[in-house]
Amino acid sequence: MKKALLSVGTLFLVGTVACGPQDTFTDEEPGPLQVAEAGLTLRSCTPLPVSSMIASGSEAINPPAHTTDDRLDTRWSNLGQGSWIDYDLGSNRTISGVAIAWHQGNTRTNNFAISVSSDGMVYTQIHTGTSSGTTAEAETYTFSPRTTRRVRIRVNGNSVNDWASISEARVCSGESTTPPASVVWSGNFETGDRSQWSGAHMVSADRMQLVSSPRREGNYALKVTVRQGDNPINASGNRNELYRMTREPVGSEYFYRWSTMFATDFPAPKTWQVFAQWHHEGNSGSPPVEFVVNNERISLNCSGTQVWSAPLVRGAWQDFVFHTKWSSNASVGFVELYHNGQLVLPKRYCATQYSGMLNYLKMGLYRNSTIAPVGVLYHDGWTMGRQLSDVLPAGATLSSSVAAVASASDE
After folding, report:
1. Which of 13, 37, 45, 272 is most buried, most CB within 10 Å of its CB?
2. What is the mean pLDDT of residues 185-198?
């Protein structure tokens, strides 16, 4: 299926208001770091939502808000040792760490301290450290859980100059919903909002609602509704989707778990509907990996080829564990799928990326614009990890028997 889609380069249109002194110079140096709208990937951190933030100062073009926009090519910057940025969680929460992606983080080290406060007046320093100097990706700094409302990062210069420059920062939950340390990212909605995701393509908030019932786990699931004509990005088809800028590196290998329930009246005519996809950075064409509903069946497609299919079941949660290696080489990349606890697709080699392009995750519902009935489905439990054990709920087991594959494939 060929579908014109929005390119990753147009996902973010960020407006900012200048604050702080307008400098005639900036913390920008030539070097090997080239980040073109790369998205944030967290490790060992379930981020808490931030209600507001303040800073000791900033460049007009690099305000504090840039540290929460899920982009590694924007930043907060301020000149001077001791510069700080401060995040308000809105209420007292239990935290266990802070994840920071440093500007030019692969070319220099940063000296920093983390302090906490429940009233915004009296702060207690709880952590000091130095960044690795080897990566521009987020580094997670952990400490013993504690309860606080405000978290302040103070930067005491770096190995090159006295600028404080942070691309992204997240406060990590220390509450019971915190995933194991090996979980890369969780999008399970247990924050009570959509903040775990990079953004949304939706015509209105009622199309992407958090609900307490039905849910597969925890306290919340996402209800997705698509009506004919829903076209929030002026592209082909109708959609309401969340996206996460996973941008998995070439050659990387990950496991993804989630659950989907199709409403009892979910329409399934003989045409395409996508409920999960790993889309390439280009602006047209089908994604290299997609989960599709078509003509009363659900299927997994890799590089345009259907590699697994099963009957569509309505009104019941469908559990997916998807294992893949990301590569544009069909002899290297592969997909593997567990459905409802059974291995239904052993490793199948295929090109899971397009040459020269990374992928990002989209989920919700995207369908042919000719479909008239309202479509409703639910998503829950999205988790990303490096090993199978990372993504499985406590006590969950999977069957990898060949007999299970034969029966579940329904071929």
Report:
1. 45
2. 94
Instruction: Judge if pTM exceeds 0.70.
Output: no
Range of the domain at 273: 183-409
Q: How crowded is residue 212: how many other Cβ atoms within 10 Å of its Cβ?
A: 9
Residue 40 placed within a domain: yes
Whether 85 and 53 have beta carbons less than 8 Å apart is answered as: yes
Q: What angle do CA 78, 83, 85 make, to 5 degrees?
A: 90
> In 3D, which of 267, 231, 225 has the Cα closest to residue 373?
267
Q: Which amino acid appears at position 63 of this protein? A: P
AA identity, residue 121: M
Let me know whether 193 and 342 are in one domain.
yes
pLDDT at 15: 34
Residue ending a domain, among 113, 138, 173, is: 173
Largest pairwise CA distance in the chain? 69
Give CA separation, 263 vs 197, 268, 320, 323, in Å: 23, 11, 17, 26
